[in-house]
Backbone:
């Protein structure tokens, strides 16, 4: 050491040591690291309080760090975040469910049952949306058993159950569930990430809630509400929070997870039952209004069914009766409820459709008719048409068989003649049968003519009429002339002959001549009335001996009438 | 007495008598049809160790017989505390299968206590495995038992031994 150095030592010894020390600290990385670590928290704190520069500087590198860490080891971070993420996700889902229940609320808010109003008031008091309250009230379920199972080895960590529940060896159940879970995952989940989360077995539902190290399997009787899963997840999260490592490393030693049973017991508290009525008997059966409603419904259904059946029967009856009604041809027959509509053809002479429908008890206001007119050749309609053409007033009956029009009854001879001359104009009629038709007017005429036959007019002597008899003959002749005119109307001709007669007194030859003269005289008188009469004379013969020969009763002329028909009559 | 539960898997080739071997000494819980449907059947067996103050309950996974394990079988073995390997003394090939499976399992899940049951001791006339080979196996693996599911010979001893091994292993591990 020279003098200068000694002088420096004397003057700046302490400072030099300090400088050396500083230089050494600056050279040594580990020392500097310790120094920085010493002041770093405070420096960060002060910098953060001062302004946002630190945050801005760290945002990018920290973000990258996190991204890389999550990418490289997602499982670890997933497990670490599980207790945080679970509640956050659940909160979000609860919010969504609340909105959903709000929609239900709106949907059912117009229901006004007594229970609905009561629940509405209770929901209002509890500050819960009505839909959510209804869900709570109507769900019936109970958590019967809960298994906490190690995911690593399927060993049962703990198990709780209601006293009434029948329990198998819970360790074996736990292991078998894990085996089936593995089996399902391996068999049906291509990437083996799927999980068996629920299973239904009759009245039981089995729910599995999965955590990072354990799964919570609950056996639930009835229908659990969806939000129960969130509640169970919360319990499992709490178990992970309290016993995370112990559950992860669980090897079958129950002492490593003390008091986990208390946590599991909370699962059994979840239950909801339908409200019970005070009246137990009332609860057993369905409510009276339901029974009455169902009965009314059934009655209405039966009534409607029977009415429908009745209307169907009426339709069939109407169809049948229309098919057999002459002059009606149906092209379309329909039913709409109890109303009927008929379309087709109808002869104007046929019965009206409404009239026919009335026969099967279908009133006119339930049937609509649309019929086009046509001429039917059915026998009944032809007969009706004949009656219409030739006059229904006569006491005759028309019938048609095999195109033959038969007429029975009685009608004037002139009507009969008109019928005979015009029947062929009827469509569908080829021949006429009048064997059953009589004409009383013609018969009466013939009888009247007959009553005038063989009238005798007497002579006093020779060709002198007994007084008055000649006038009678003239009157008779006038009557016969009128009859002769009328006879043509009945297709009759009247042949008049006159026969003279004498008594037996006197010479027979003279008598014969006299008889002839008397006849001729009478014929002349008849001829005056326009009658052409044949004559003949005859003397009285066959006298009886001893009797008076003169007899005024034999001295006469007799006018004979013979009626001849110009047509063939039955 | 502290209750301890362990998962034990029974592994071996087809028809070596795995199910028969353990059936006599366990609490049957489930129908045998699970073996053919799901591929595994669960039974339990409680063994007490008064000296240690431990009641050891074995949850025994009887895995369907196979000479090569797939994903499903390996999934069943996950987390097992011990294994019961079973071979058929009348078919030496089944011992080779056991060795192969043991290797596979150890490779996948690490070493674990096990016992080897060479079964069908009652069919000694048909026995095809030499004593020398068995001695060699005993030296290599330890805990090799000649058992008979029919008579029950040595089965309970083997299972009890496995329970001990598991307890010892757990004590050492902790």
Residues:
């Amino acid at each position: 050491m020279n003098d200068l150095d000694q002088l420096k030592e004397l003057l700046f010894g302490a400072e030099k040591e300090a400088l050396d020390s500083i230089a050494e600290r600056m050279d040594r990385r580990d020392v500097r690291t310790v120094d920085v670590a010493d002041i770093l928290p405070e420096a960060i704190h002060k910098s953060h309080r001062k302004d946002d520069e630190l945050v801005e500087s760290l945002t990018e590198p920290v973000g990258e760090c996190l991204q890389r860490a999550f990418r490289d080891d997602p499982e670890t971070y997933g497990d670490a975040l599980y207790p945080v993420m679970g509640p956050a996700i659940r909160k979000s889902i609860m919010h969504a469910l609340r909105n959903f229940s709000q929609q239900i609320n709106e949907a059912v808010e117009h229901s006004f049952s007594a229970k609905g109003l009561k629940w509405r008031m209770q929901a209002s008091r509890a500050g819960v949306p009505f839909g959510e309250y209804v869900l709570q009230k109507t769900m019936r379920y109970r958590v019967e058993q809960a298994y906490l199972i190690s995911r690593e080895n399927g060993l049962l960590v703990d198990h709780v159950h209601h006293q009434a529940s029948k329990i198998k060896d819970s360790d074996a159940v736990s292991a078998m569930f894990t085996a089936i879970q593995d089996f399902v995952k391996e068999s049906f989940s291509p990437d083996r990430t799927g999980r068996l989360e629920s299973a239904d077995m009759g009245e039981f539902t089995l729910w599995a809630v999965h955590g990072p190290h354990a799964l919570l399997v609950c056996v639930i009787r009835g229908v659990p509400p969806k939000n129960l899963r969130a509640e169970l997840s919360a319990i499992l999260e709490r178990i992970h929070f309290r016993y995370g490592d112990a559950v992860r490393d669980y090897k079958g030693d129950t002492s490593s997870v003390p008091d986990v049973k208390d946590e599991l017991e909370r699962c059994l508290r979840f239950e909801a039952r339908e409200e019970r009525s005070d009246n137990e008997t009332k609860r057993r059966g369905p409510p009276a209004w339901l029974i009455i409603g169902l009965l009314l419904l059934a009655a209405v259904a039966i009534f409607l069914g029977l009415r429908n059946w009745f209307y169907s029967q009426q339709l069939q009856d109407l169809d049948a009766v229309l098919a057999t009604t002459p002059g009606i041809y149906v092209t379309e027959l329909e039913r709409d409820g109890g109303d009927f509509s008929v379309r087709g053809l109808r002869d104007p002479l046929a019965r009206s459709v409404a009239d026919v429908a009335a026969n099967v008890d279908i009133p006119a206001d339930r049937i609509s008719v649309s019929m086009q007119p046509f001429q039917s050749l059915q026998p009944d309609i032809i007969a009706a048409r004949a009656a219409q053409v030739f006059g229904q007033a006569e006491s005759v009956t028309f019938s048609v068989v095999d195109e033959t029009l038969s007429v029975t009854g009685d009608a004037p001879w002139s009507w009969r003649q008109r019928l005979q001359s015009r029947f062929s104009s009827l469509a569908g009629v080829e021949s006429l049968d009048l064997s059953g038709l009589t004409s009383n007017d013609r018969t009466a005429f013939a009888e009247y003519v007959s009553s005038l036959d063989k009238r005798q007019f007497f002579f006093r002597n020779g060709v002198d009429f007994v007084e008055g008899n000649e006038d009678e003959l003239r009157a008779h002749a006038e009557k016969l002339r009128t009859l002769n005119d009328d006879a043509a109307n009945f297709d009759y001709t009247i042949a008049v002959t006159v026969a003279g007669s004498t008594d037996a007194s006197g010479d027979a030859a003279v008598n014969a001549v006299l008889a002839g003269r008397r006849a001729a005289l009478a014929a002349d008188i008849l001829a005056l009335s326009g009658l052409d009469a044949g004559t003949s004379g005859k003397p009285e013969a066959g006298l009886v001996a001893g009797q008076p020969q003169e007899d005024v009763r034999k001295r006469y002329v007799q006018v004979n009438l013979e009626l001849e028909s110009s047509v063939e009559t039955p | 007495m502290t209750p301890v539960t362990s998962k034990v898997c029974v592994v071996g080739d087809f028809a070596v008598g795995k199910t028969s071997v353990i059936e006599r000494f366990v609490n049957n819980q489930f129908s045998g049809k699970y073996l053919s449907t799901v591929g595994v059947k669960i039974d339990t067996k409680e063994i007490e160790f008064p000296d240690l103050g431990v009641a050891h309950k074995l949850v025994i996974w009887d895995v369907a017989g196979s000479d090569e394990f797939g994903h499903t079988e390996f999934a069943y073995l996950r987390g097992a505390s011990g294994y019961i390997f079973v071979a058929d003394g009348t078919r030496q090939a089944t011992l080779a299968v056991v060795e192969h499976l043991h290797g596979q399992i150890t490779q996948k899940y690490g070493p674990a206590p096990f016992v080897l049951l060479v079964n069908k001791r009652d069919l000694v006339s048909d026995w095809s495995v030499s004593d020398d080979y068995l001695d060699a196996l005993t030296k290599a693996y330890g805990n090799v038992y000649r058992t008979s599911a029919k008579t029950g010979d040595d089965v309970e001893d083997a299972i009890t031994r496995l329970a001990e091994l598991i307890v010892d292993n757990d004590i050492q591990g902790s």
